[in-house]
Amino acid sequence: MRTMSAITSYSYLKELANTQRSSKTHDLGANELSFLCIRIQKELIYIDATRIGEVIPFSGVSPVGHTAPWFEGLLKIQGQIYSVLDISSFLGYKSSVKRKEFVIALSEANDNVSIIAEELFGLQKFTKIHKVSEENYLDTYRAVDKNIQVLSIDRLLTTPEFTHISIF
To answer: Rounded to an integer, what distance in angstroms lies between the CA atom of residue 117 and that of residue 45?
Structure first.
């Protein structure tokens, strides 16, 4: 078995995502699911690890005019152009100081979408997880010992608010 020091974080996440994508879903009977835990202001938000393509440090984006305030612009990741979403702003969090530390490229077949996170807490595994409720773009799941808020990538990518970024 390879250790984290023997591989890059990108290849580890990609390998993990491919393994989980082929063998597990969010069914009530799933034995173990992995999530990337991020902080948005004071909230911990989890992202399904199978939906992540890459995590890189934030280094700025190319702005695009006449777009929604939460649309940061475009960024080239691994030779592909990605739209960059300020997830904190999109979810309606107010902030006096915006820390943009990481960009998380989502692994989607037809969409090159990435989101900005201010802090990462790494991959966390949960067993016997089940959905308790849905609200806007966050799903509440009950793990063995706590509730977690999971970003619904599917609802995010299909909502009219997200798909119409122009302010016109």
So the answer is: 10
Task: Determine the Cα–Cα distance for residues 132 and 147; give it in Å rounded to an integer.
Answer: 9
First to last CA, the chain: 53
Q: 150 Cβ partners below 8 Å, 6+ apart?
A: 35, 45, 46, 47, 48, 138, 139, 140, 141
- Domain limits, the chain: 4-163
- What confidence tens digit (pLDDT) does each residue in 53-76 have? 999 999 889 999 999 999 999 999
Alpha-carbon separation of residue 40 from 30, 94, 136 (angstroms): 27, 10, 16
Strand runs labelled E in the chain: 32-40, 43-48, 52-57, 71-77, 80-85, 102-106, 113-117, 119-127, 130-135, 138-142, 147-151
24 class by beta-carbon count within 10 Å (0-12 exposed, 13-18 middle, 19+ buried): middle
CATH of domain 4-163: 2.40.50.180
pLDDT one-digit tens code per residue, 119-152: 999 999 998 888 999 998 999 999 888 999 999 9
Report the predicted TM-score, pTM, of the whole model to 2 decimal places.
Answer: 0.78
